[in-house]
Amino acid sequence: MLTRKICGDEIKYFIEEIKEKGFCVIKKYLAEKHVKFLINEALFLIEQKGSNEEGTPLGLQSTIKIDKRLNTVIQYSKDYLEISTTGDHLKIYSEFLNDPFYGLIPSNDPNFILAQANLRQATSRLAFHVDSRLVTPGYNTWSMQGIIALSRKNNLTGGLR
């Protein structure tokens, strides 16, 4: 497994962080050896399969059109597929995204859809914006984003200003 174990108390903490702040940060979720491997794999995949023309960002997101990127990386990489579909981060997502009325999957297992898994080698930043398919009052949501930063991020190097 590429990710570390997240214990029950830590999961509860991250869920509360999301409820209070709208986000959480899971530090050192990937081992350093995996990070280096995934960076190399990302660079290779972007070079082989990526395109600045594929799905050219429009409007506010047009600022990232110069960035190297690859949409739907999970169709090209079993490692990125594994990160996207296994690991304890799914327990955090499940708290917000699981359908409580869907009885065909046990309630403690994820029962939501992975919509995207993209790579972007950022050289530009996006202005703050909300990526939500449907805004609802309270804690209910239809969509959540997860970012796996393979390098150190701050307000100058992050995906958002």
How many helices does DSSP assign?
A: 4
- Specify the helix fraction band: 25-40%
Question: Pairing-aware structural class of the strands and helices?
Answer: mainly alpha
Taking the sheet with the most strands, its summary is: 2 strands, antiparallel
Determine the N-to-C terminus distance.
32 Å
Q: Could you tell me the radius of gyration in angstroms?
A: 16 Å
Q: Give a count of the beta strands, DSSP E runs of length 2 or more.
A: 2
State the shape.
Answer: globular
Order of helices and strands: HHEHHE
Task: Please indicate the percent range of residues in DSSP E strands (runs of 2 or more).
Answer: under 5%
Mean pLDDT figure: 84
Poorly predicted regions are none
- The strand line-up of the biggest sheet is 1-2
Give an account of the 3D structure.
The chain has 4 helices and 2 strands; from the N terminus they run H-H-E-H-H-E. The protein has 161 residues and is mainly α. It has a two-stranded antiparallel sheet. Helix 1 packs across helix 4 (89-97). The longest helix has 18 residues, at 32-49. The chain is globular and about 40 Å long. The protein starts with 7 loop residues before the first helix and ends in a 40-residue tail after the last strand. The model has no long low-confidence stretch (mean pLDDT 84).
